[in-house]
Amino acid sequence: MLSHQYSRLAALMAISSLLSASASPIALDPRQGPQPVTVTYEITSVENGEGKYFNIGASGKPGSQLTHAESYQVGYTVELGANLGLSIKEIFGLGVSASISKSTSKGSEDSIQIECPAPGDWTCSMVIKPKVVIKHGNQVFQGKRSPYTVSFPRVTKENILFFEADICSCPNKIGWASPGAPERCPEDC
């Protein structure tokens, strides 16, 4: 009786330590003991796209020049499959069609200057549109395919982010919806 209770306790402790360890997933088969489980990743498509837009925060009235010379960071984004415990490292290396970065990317430090269109009663800011590489695929675990979508920043060989800059109208300022106003900024200015 004591050995039966001990074996239950030992099994419970083994499961607990396996679940809390940072090792790879383990399947428990009572006949064979712990067995490694294979998780693989497939890429079904890779495409270029745009990441989440953001504005620089500086603002100006119509006719003013907005300059951006700051650096910023954009990281990878899991758009589908966040609950799967994805291995970003493995997905990163599959199906690469451009230079990408899995860690956050340093933005351009080159000066960009755009003029706020005049005449008008709006306040302008500069919107940054980062370029990304979007990978669609499946995580295969125990014969089950679960879809995922992960976006990685598209970068130059110097790890500088590809992006477009454009003018936008500040949604928290008067005139942002006036006729002729630039597109609405994604954030308040």
List keywords for this structure.
two-stranded antiparallel ribbon; about 190 residues; about 40% strand; six-stranded antiparallel beta sheet
Inertia-based shape: elongated
Mean pLDDT: 74
* Number of strand elements: 12
Radius of gyration: 25 Å
The description of the largest β-sheet is: 6 strands, antiparallel
Query: Can you count the helices?
Result: 2
**What is the N-to-C succession of helices and strands?**
HEEEEEEEHEEEEE
Distance between the termini: 71 Å
Helical proportion?
10-25%
**Structural class of the secondary structure composition?**
mainly beta
Q: What is the percentage of strand-forming residues?
A: 35-45%
Point out poorly predicted stretches: 1-28
Describe the protein's architecture and organization.
This protein is mainly beta. The chain is about 15% helix and about 40% strand. The protein has 2 helices and 12 strands, in the order αβββββββαβββββ. Strands 3, 4, 7, 10, 11 and 12 form a 6-stranded antiparallel sheet that branches. A hairpin with a 3-residue loop joins strand 1 and strand 2. The radius of gyration is 25 Å and the shape is elongated. It starts with a helix and ends in a 20-residue tail after the last strand. About 25% of the residues are buried. Residues about 1-30 have low confidence and may be disordered.
